[in-house]
Amino acid sequence: MPKMKTKSAAKKRFTFTASGKVKAGHAGKRHGMIKRTTKFIRDTAGTMILCDADAKIVKKYMPYNR
To answer: What pTM, to 2 d.p., does this model score?
Structure first.
């Protein structure tokens, strides 16, 4: 069997924690900050842990990063 390939887009956007959970940046912070509330901008700083359903999809894209 040939090796499976990692999706290049996924390896740029997601990282794994030591326990195997998937970390990602918050959505909605690229442009249009004027219309966003300051509370939204504050709450979306940093990274978040993906839910199990989304993490399952990401783990399929990154077969060797577990």
So the answer is: 0.84
